[in-house]
Amino acid sequence: MNASQSAKGDILLVDDTPDNLRLLSTMLVEQGYEVRSVRSGKSALMGVQAQAPDLILLDINMPEMNGYEVCQRLKANPETQAIPIIFISALNEVFDKVKAFTVGGVDYISKPFQIEEVLVRVENQLQIQRLQLELQRSLEQERALNQRIEQLAATEERNRIARDIHDSLGHALVALNIQMETALTLWKDNPQKAYEFLVEAKQLGSEALQATRQSVADIRFDPLKGRPLEAAIRDLTEEFRRTTNIQPNCTIQLAQPLSNNLSTILYRIVQEGLTNICKHAEATAVTLHLKSSEQDLSLLLQDNGRGFQLDQNRSGFGLQGMQERVTMLGGELEITSQPGAGCQVKALLPVHLV
Prior knowledge:
This protein is an alpha/beta fold. It is built from ten helices and ten strands. The chain has helices at 18-30, 41-50, 67-76, 94-102, 115-186, 191-220, 229-244, 260-281, 310-313, 317-328; strands at 10-14, 34-38, 55-59, 85-89, 107-110, 249-253, 286-292, 296-303, 332-337, 343-350. α2 packs parallel to α3. It starts with 9 loop residues before the first strand and ends with a strand. The model has no long low-confidence stretch (mean pLDDT 83).
């Protein structure tokens, strides 16, 4: 509905009988509607093209072009097909009513009509149209909001990875610098020992370079590569098995498909968790459960490795990355670990992000 028009709506009357037009027009104008009247199908089509109404009251029996044909032409045009059309006709056979609905009419009023009936049917159709427009606006706003959320999440993910690169590379460079300084100190008095420190420094440099390349690749590419989350995680656990010779006990039960953004973040959480286990846990068994319901989505990642003292390792890069990702989604993260007792990571996420 056009905001410049009457608040109650713009109605086009189409009838070849002047008395019907005068009666309907007077009645609708008194009720606050903006009304235009034409006496032929051809004029109706021209009037709609000039300014699309909110509703059309259309007579069936007219010379040259009847109401059925007018309706068919309007419904065949993408620009006018959404305009609701109420047929008004003296034809009262079931066949005529069925045909009216078949060609695209939304309602049918038989002549002679009652004014109260016309008003009720007109307002009913205009109210339906208002609700449809509100729904369409809401859906458009929701789509725009979802796109914005995904953009912000993607930006946050890139920022987080950039921080990881900065932090991990900083630690690696500090360690590398210590090795190099020690080698320089020992170079004259103990060349063999100095050489050993240089070898370790080279290894540290190679590892830092590889980690940086991987992080840059994570920023540039979609880790899911178009795959569903279930398939991507199965590939991840298979890669983990090939590296560690441990086959994770993996269970994935999703009640509904997840958005690409949420799937990507969950994949990253699992990826970081498995990477930590591979590097530090010395585990022999790993359990991974991912389950969603109508209320929430839960993730459990557990190993039987050597564990650690949580208050001393809470800021570790992998744990910090998991915490940031879960917090970004409005969820909760619980990490349980003790030396010699393995580690358990639980994440609970709100279902509205699915």
